[in-house]
Design goal:
It holds the Pfam family RNase_T. This is 3'-5' exonuclease. With 187 residues, the protein is an alpha/beta fold. The chain has a single domain, classed as Nucleotidyltransferase, domain 5, CATH 3.30.420. The protein is 45% helix and 19% strand. The protein has a five-stranded mixed sheet. The longest helix is centred in the C-terminal third of the chain and has 22 residues. The N and C termini lie close together (9 Å).
């Protein structure tokens, strides 16, 4: 029997200038409520420094120069993101959901702590890849989104736009949960 309060699953994707927070900038955040994908958040951020890995910018198609001019200051972006999370979660517990969640969560966690003082998700995240591996019994190599999509047939696709990817991840998560509920009866 569970005694915890209701949870709001929030699918989050980020695009970055490199592999680790602090050394490289988070460039964009996309988020949606898994149960209500019309509830979305998207923001592009000013870089915190000029460091980048060329491949990271090639994947996202983002420009540090453009973001320096047009992006939202990180502190303002994270306060806006926090306000959105508070609004959509209400009295429930917000749960960070990501595809390769450790990567995205590490940037979100760093930015929340650096620019607002705390992370509303705490120190945890729900990883769709690990959930799929546990449910399907596949190998870690078979947790790529393309392999999962072959099995569960989502309508959406990822394209390295943070909001689009958050919406795609939310669909994957819903489809995986639906499959789980058919395989594992409620206790």
């Amino acid at each position: 029997m569970s005694t915890s309060k209701q949870e709001t699953f929030i699918s989050i994707d980020v695009e970055t200038a490199g592999p680790i927070p602090g050394e490289y900038s988070m460039l964009s955040i996309g988020a949606c409520v898994v149960a209500d994908p019309s509830a979305t958040f998207a923001c592009e951020l000013k870089p915190i420094n000029a460091r980048f890995v060329p491949e990271a910018l090639e994947v996202s198609g983002m420009s540090l120069d453009r973001l320096q001019r047009e992006g939202t200051k990180p502190e303002a972006a994270m306060h806006r993101f926090r306000a959105w999370i508070d609004e959509v979660a209400g009295d429930s517990t917000p749960v960070f959901v990501g595809f390769n969640a450790p990567f995205d969560w590490s940037f979100v966690n760093y930015y929340f702590h650096k620019f607002t003082g705390e992370n509303p998700f705490g120190f945890t995240a729900l990883d769709i890849k690990a959930l799929w591996m546990g449910l399907s019994g596949c190998t870690w190599a078979d947790t790529r989104s393309s392999r999962i999509a072959e099995e569960i047939h989502p309508q959406l696709d990822g394209d390295h736009d943070a909001l689009h990817d958050a919406l795609y991840q939310a669909e994957l998560f819903r489809l995986i949960l639906s499959r789980r509920s058919r395989l594992i009866p409620a206790l």
